[in-house]
Amino acid sequence: MKEEELIERARNGDKYAFEILINDSLPILKGYMIKLTCNRELAEDIIQDALLSAVVNIDTFVPKAKFSTWLIKIASNKYKDYLRKVKETDILLEVIPEDYSLEDKVIEKNEIEEIFKILKNMPEDKRNVFILKHYYGYSYEEISYIVNCPVGTVRSRLHYGIKEIISKFKGGM
């Protein structure tokens, strides 16, 4: 069944259709939030909030983007709300999650830690755009929709974010 059909059925109260939409999107959402927050427990809390909002607001979803894109937008906004509430912009990275086995095989653990530390210390707007583009392959237009800014701003944030990562990787400041 196509995503559009599932969305229409979910809007009409079909819990099974909504469950399929969530199950298809959950791995992407989880990975994104863990990378964005650098904190598994916080990511899970935000995901729960985002899913609850999605259930409550399914009627407002306009399928001009994928359902997973809409969920990521909701979760990103929930994370921004969290940061505003606790006024915490520098969440500490205590442990690299164990589930990065593929990356562990490709890059040594200390390099992964270095990359996550660089990402953690980047401004949230650049980090968001970088993760969405390079970890999930979203188009500039989709990222623009998620972060609610013009495509040109997305391109600029990505450009400067990459420059920052390159300059800081391997000891550059």
Automatic annotation (TrEMBL):
Q: Which InterPro entries does its entry note? A: RNA_pol_sigma-70-like (IPR039425), RNA_pol_sigma-70_dom (IPR014284), RNA_pol_sigma70_r2 (IPR007627), RNA_pol_sigma70_r4_t2 (IPR013249), RNA_pol_sigma_r2 (IPR013325), RNA_pol_sigma_r3/r4-like (IPR013324), WH-like_DNA-bd_sf (IPR036388)
Protein name from the UniProt record: RNA polymerase sigma factor SigY
Q: Which residues form the RNA polymerase sigma factor 70 region 4 type domain?
A: 113-163
Where in the numbering of this chain does the RNA polymerase sigma-70 region domain appear? 21-87
- What GO MF annotations does this protein's record show? DNA binding; sigma factor activity
Has the keyword Transcription been applied to this entry? yes
Q: Which family does it belong to?
A: Belongs to the sigma-70 factor family. ECF subfamily.
Entry keyword set: Sigma factor, Transcription, Transcription regulation
Gene Ontology BP, a term: DNA-templated transcription initiation
Organism (species) = Clostridium manihotivorum
